[in-house]
Amino acid sequence: MKLIAQCTVALLLCVVCVSGQPQPPVASPKRVLIISIDGGRPDVLLRANTPNLRELLAAGSFTFWARTTEMANTLPSHTSMITGVTPQKHGINFNKDVPEEELRYPNYPTIFELAKKKGYSTALAAGKSKFIALCRPKTVDYPLMPSAKASFTDAEVATKASEGLREHQPQVMLVHFAGGDKAGHAIGWGSEPQIEALEEIDKGVGKVIGTLKELNLYETTLIIVTADHGGAARSHGQGDVRARHIPWIAVGPGIRKNLDLTIFKDLVVNTEDTFATACAYLGITLGDDIDGKPITQMYDGAELMQDIASPKAKPKPATRPAASGTNAAINKSNFTDLLKNLSYAHEGLNANVIGGKLKPNSNISPEFASGADICSGIPQPSDKTLPGWN
Ligand SMILES: [Zn+2]
Fold it and tell me: Phi/psi of residue 155, each to 5°?
């Protein structure tokens, strides 16, 4: 009997040896998908019929008051989005196709480059050929790009991205839709044709997300949907706040659902934060000179009313269990319950929530104490008054 058992074990070991060539290390299941809607000004997006984007809003945390670089141009802003630093640092200050011999790459590593060093596979599906400047050789495994000075329609980008996902399952991917920007320059920001273009992009977003779901990759993917700039009339650029506001929507493991990030008074999401948030998720350490910060406030277990730390803040591990209800929509009716569940003293605010009510001496502002008005009214100051605006 003992002999039979020994033979069985030996046989099993042989099967493992024969069937298994040396196996590569088990890759992290984490994935990042960044979707950029070129020229996607938040208020125009909100006027459009975009069921897929709205589904992402319900599934994640978001702000329509994020901001892009001061330059507010396509290539510099996208470079900041995926390097985490300002254009002054990354050096991509041009915004056009350049001849191959003049092509320059960013001074800072892109998320593709850093992800590759960590063993992740990478892909870029773009509607404009000038995105080649983001593809330093050997950093993008699957460049799904138009040839020089050509472009892809948004439907083509969606198809390329979906096919790329099916064939290669890249772990870090940027998908860029150009149609909103083209319609803006051709007809105008906020025009009906631009709204129609954004609705087409929404279909493309739905197709790409649908592919992720079909491949059972959706649950492990951090998805960030954002834009490189907005615009006004038929242009965009430096000094125009209508060009600098962008949407920022994040969906993924542990991210609160249906949470408007403007609930955090001092939080300004910058385009460099897309890079930092994605890196933090992938386990990539941020350099000290990175301008972006991970948006930790969107995670379950993060303090709801935390004063936001300095822009250089590094991700803070959640030390408290997620309170029940933090994943739900935060609205007037359940905010009191939420406070009750978050019954711990808050750093700097000394919340002292007892039984869902605030102690009289609490430092929390009356609006929070009453639970009223927290969702009513994005403030309408001039942009100059937004925190950190410059
Ligand atoms: Zn653009």
Answer: -65, -40
